[in-house]
Amino acid sequence: MSKKQVLIIGTGLGGLSTALRLTSKGYDVEMVEKYHQAGGRLNMLEKDGFTFDMGPSFFSMSYEFTELFEYCNIPNPLKLRELNPLYAVYFEDKKSPFLIYKDLEKLAKEFENIEPDLKRKTEKYLAAAGKLFHDTEHIVIKQNFDSVFGYLLQLARVPLKHAPKMFRSMWDELNKNFDSQEVKVIFSLVSFFLGSTPFQTPAVYSLLNYTELKHDGYWNVEGGMYSITTSIKKILEDRGVKFHFNTEIVEVESNNGNLNTVISTDGRKFTADFIVSNSDAASFRGRVLKREKYTDTKLDKMEWTLAPFTIYLGVKGKMDNLHHHNYFLGNNFEEYADSIFKTSVSPNKPYYYVNVSSRSNPNCAPEGHENLFILCPVPDMRHKRDWSDSDLLADTIIEDLGKRVDFDLKSNIVSRTIINPIDWRDKFNLYQGSGLGLAHGLNQIGGFRPANKDEEFSNLYYVGASTVPGTGLPIVVISSRLVTERILKDDGRI
């Protein structure tokens, strides 16, 4: 009996993880990818002797990678390293950064002059967030839903004590537990990962503070984050998986409720028994399948995560005042958060994140040099379409960073690359340049999110950030498990 064929559109972490699971179950897998190499946003840039992780630079819930490789009955090839401290936060009006530790004794010492009794307050806050996380993990996050009604039935199983957090904001929750502006701002940074601000994000997402500060912390990978991509890709190649790069799918052919064929821009046709799209689950339905529910007009009315404006710098010298992961913030947090999502101009005093991966992976930069990855969250292209000011924004960030860490950054740059939202859109088909796909408001999670099984084609499925459960590297690994369960069930294997 011949093996059934699976075609996966896109080689992001969701697509690669799904391929790994399905080949472990005996399926023949073929993958097509618009970009010239695998990884999607989990990609790599090499230039002038420097190597940069293009997108994600750390992750939580590291055990989801353990689960992935155990599911496939293979040793985990990734060498994970826990971050300690988790990150550093620089405020504009403070000379020294706050270092954020999982060790609450150390954390409390960082804030002893502005937030007395922080250890006790944080333990209380995290205990409540932890109960919420574990009460919803298997009911909402690690669950397939066949309908909105089915999702609501599942949601009814969550203990009622958590309900008030659906109706107040994360900022309100932090106000209940802490006094200092600095602590509240730092604990609220996770809301930006969801595509919102703490003033709009429901308090249920306080569970993310639990995952970072207590449950599992933050991790990266020896050799750089792109080694996740290369490690999985090598296993897949050893299993005979074929990869087709520089191949964008733009059309489909169907018959009797099945998706028979997908067609690339150069007219090549690909067929399979099952097709999995790791392209954005919402925009693929609109732009490739031409679904009325997902026209550009309707997509634009959905809530999307912020776009990334990224700078990759090769720097001569050692920037000793920088840690591995760093956030640089101003002193106008509420005003900034209120305007950043919908402004049509670049910020004058941008907030940004800096990763120095050469600290833990020296091979990323020539000897005596550092590699800097800078991420500034900016409005997606619904609100700011003109990025002719990219160099100006980069210059502003570089000047500010140099001043903050007391280093002549501008004079020591030997390599510089900017990737703005237009570039992210064009390279990786990110809708309107949105960095993490659909946002996570209550109307776009669980059964309200684009489903991972197509509404019309019985053999078409979805994996990745804009379907269930949502965005983030470990969450996308969970997504691969959920879509694999769908396929195995539909194929009569479970």
What would you report as the Rg, rounded to the nearest angstrom? 22 Å
Query: What would you give as the CATH superfamily of one domain?
Result: FAD/NAD(P)-binding domain
Low-confidence stretches: none
Number of strands: 19
Query: What shape does the CA trace take?
Result: globular
CATH domain fold name of one domain: FAD/NAD(P)-binding domain
What is the top-level CATH class of one domain? Answer: Alpha Beta
Second CATH tier, the architecture of one domain: 3-Layer(bba) Sandwich
Helical/strand content category: alpha/beta
> How many angstroms separate the termini?
19 Å
Proportion of residues in extended strands:
15-25%
Helix tally equals 15
Mean pLDDT: 96
Q: Main beta sheet, described? A: 7 strands, mixed
Q: What is the topology, as strand order, of the major beta sheet?
A: 7-6-15-16-17-14-18
The helix fraction, in percent, is 25-40%
Q: Can you tell me about this structure?
A:
It is a single chain. The chain is α/β, with parallel strands linked by helices. Among the domains are: 5-34 and 246-301 and 441-490, FAD/NAD(P)-binding domain, CATH 3.50.50; 119-171 and 183-209, no CATH class. It is built from 15 helices and 19 strands. It has helices at residues 13-24, 63-71, 104-110, 118-141, 148-155, 170-177, 181-188, 207-215, 226-238, 281-287, 296-300, 333-339, 390-404, 421-428, 473-490; strands at 5-9, 28-32, 44-47, 50-53, 80-82, 87-91, 98-100, 219-221, 242-244, 249-255, 258-264, 269-271, 274-277, 307-316, 325-329, 352-355, 369-378, 413-419, 460-462. The protein is globular and about 70 Å long. The model has no long low-confidence stretch (mean pLDDT 96).
